[in-house]
């Protein structure tokens, strides 16, 4: 048998083709050009080519800029796709960097230690991220959404990385605003920034950009870093509800002492990995030197020593019944892995009881509803872990913080586009799961070989109905 050379062009990542088609259908290139303008007339690649190249690299499993080198050969058969080199991508992204500012702070300790914290807010790119997310149909103008704000830590040994007091590592500590699993605003900070560093300014900028595009925020959820008078007054003045954890410190222990006169009632609150058999109370509260009306939702559970001391036979049987429920749910894999212990973090022990306080300006909702809404912010932590592992947040490629801000926003754009594509294709492709990780999406959808036969894409033998989405 004589071997003949085939002139048929093949692409091992055939799922990229309908994904690229949807990128253009959403109008993402137009959004990028509108926000960032055009490059020099002699440039071979526009800003839209740079961001599309990185999004497609992420969809093919790439986590570093130089991974585009291998993909260029594999994706070369796709019509209308311009893939620059990794050097061009890096050089072009750096040109979008904005100025990094430094704040000087003096600690309240006796020695008066001076610390410098750097931060970078790239408003232009954050605006592009929001506009593109709207174009994908993930956010609707005129609709109300809940916004989570939280800080995370990205370990790195880049040039201007700073050591975190909490993690004892070099890195960055970006403040991120999320709507569900969609990052919509990123403010980069050096690793030594506290969780509450300039949180009011960050949130105000995010809300302003969202309102500029017709997106309304009905509620903001934050951990103890949001327990800031200026932040809460700003939200209240805008008519935005908030659920913020109130830390139990020595300066507000008098508040807990006053809870003795409050009417407590027993309740059961179910979380993703436990069932809280606790007491709950609600009391009006006015912050110091403020006329803002709010209230505090307080939960308390007896610690182990108090429970054993006061527990009668009926309560013991009830607790054993709850333990059996948890055991059954665990065997059915209905519970997530156990996180922190009850007495750790948000729960603070005081005179035989573990307390948890949430401050809110929602005066009508049931206390249990406020607690359940606040507990949903645990999804923000899972989203951070997802972004670091799936979209390379944990691998910032540049040496300077303001340049890595651009990378985090570009990765967030890829994440939001991925969410939009999966939701859109789910109607015709049941194999896709809305809660699937990117690696699962790559295995099921992207890695389907494709050939060009007489100018027509042919996917051969596959169970994915590409003909319905092309």
Count every beta strand, where a strand is a DSSP E run of 2 or more residues: 18
What is the radius of gyration computed over CA atoms, rounded to a whole number of angstroms?
Answer: 26 Å
Helix content: 25-40%
Low-pLDDT windows of residues: 338-345
Biggest beta-sheet profile? 12 strands, mixed
Mean pLDDT: 86
Outline type? globular
Q: Kindly estimate the percentage of residues that lie in beta strands according to DSSP.
A: 15-25%
How would you classify the helix and strand content by structural class? alpha+beta
How many angstroms does the end-to-end distance come to? 38 Å
Number of helices: 16
What does this structure look like?
The structure is a single chain. The protein is α+β, with helices and mostly antiparallel strands. Among the domains are: 9-98 and 405-469, no CATH class; 245-370, no CATH class. Helix content is 38%, strand content 22%. The protein contains 16 helices and 18 strands. Strands 2, 3, 4, 8, 9, 10, 11, 12, 13, 14, 15 and 16 form a 12-stranded mixed sheet that branches. Helix 3 crosses helix 14 (401-425). It is globular. It starts with 8 loop residues before the first strand and ends with a helix. 36% of the residues are buried.
Compact overview of the structure:
This protein has 16 helices and 18 strands. The chain has 470 residues and is of the alpha+beta class. Among the domains are: 9-98 and 405-469, no CATH class; 245-370, no CATH class.
């Amino acid at each position: 048998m004589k071997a003949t050379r085939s002139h048929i062009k093949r692409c091992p990542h055939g799922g990229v083709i309908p994904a690229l088609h949807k990128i253009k259908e959403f109008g993402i290139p137009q959004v990028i050009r509108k926000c960032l303008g055009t490059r020099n007339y002699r440039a071979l690649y526009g800003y839209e080519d740079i961001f599309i190249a990185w999004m497609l690299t992420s969809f093919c499993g790439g986590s570093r800029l130089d991974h585009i080198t291998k993909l260029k050969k594999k994706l070369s058969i796709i019509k209308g796709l311009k893939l620059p080199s990794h050097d061009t991508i890096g050089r072009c992204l750096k040109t979008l960097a904005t100025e990094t500012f430094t704040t000087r702070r003096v600690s309240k300790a006796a020695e008066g230690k001076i610390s410098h914290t750097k931060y970078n807010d790239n408003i232009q790119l954050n605006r592009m991220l929001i506009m593109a997310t709207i174009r994908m149909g993930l956010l609707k103008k005129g609709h109300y959404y809940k916004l989570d704000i939280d800080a995370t830590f990205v370990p790195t040994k880049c040039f201007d990385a700073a050591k975190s007091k909490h993690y004892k590592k070099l890195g960055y500590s970006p403040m991120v605003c999320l709507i569900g699993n969609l990052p919509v605003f990123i403010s980069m900070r050096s690793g030594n920034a506290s969780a509450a560093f300039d949180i009011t300014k960050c949130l105000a900028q995010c809300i302003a950009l969202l309102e500029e595009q017709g997106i309304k925020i009905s509620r903001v959820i934050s951990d103890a870093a949001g327990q800031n008078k200026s932040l809460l007054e700003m939200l209240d003045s805008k008519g935005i509800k908030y659920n913020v954890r109130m830390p139990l410190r020595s300066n507000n222990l008098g508040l807990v002492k006053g809870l003795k006169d409050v009417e407590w009632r027993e309740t059961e609150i179910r979380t993703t990995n436990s069932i809280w058999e606790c007491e709950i109370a609600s009391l009006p509260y006015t912050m110091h030197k403020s006329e803002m009306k709010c209230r505090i939702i307080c939960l308390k559970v007896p610690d182990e020593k108090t429970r054993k001391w006061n527990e009668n036979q009926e309560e013991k049987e009830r607790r054993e019944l709850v333990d059996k429920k948890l055991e059954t749910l665990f065997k059915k894999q209905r519970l997530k892995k156990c996180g922190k212990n009850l007495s750790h973090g948000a729960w603070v022990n005081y005179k035989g009881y573990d307390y948890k306080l949430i401050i809110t300006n929602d005066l009508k909702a049931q206390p249990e509803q406020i607690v359940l809404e606040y507990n949903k912010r645990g999804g923000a932590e899972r989203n951070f872990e997802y972004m670091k592992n799936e979209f390379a947040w944990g691998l910032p490629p540049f040496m300077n913080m303001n340049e890595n801000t651009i990378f985090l926003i570009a990765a967030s754009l890829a994440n939001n586009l991925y969410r939009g594509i999966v939701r859109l294709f789910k109607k015709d492709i049941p194999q896709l799961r809305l809660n699937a990780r990117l690696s699962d999406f790559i295995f099921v959808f992207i890695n389907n070989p494709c050939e060009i036969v007489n100018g027509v894409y042919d996917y051969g033998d596959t169970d994915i109905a590409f003909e319905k989405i092309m």
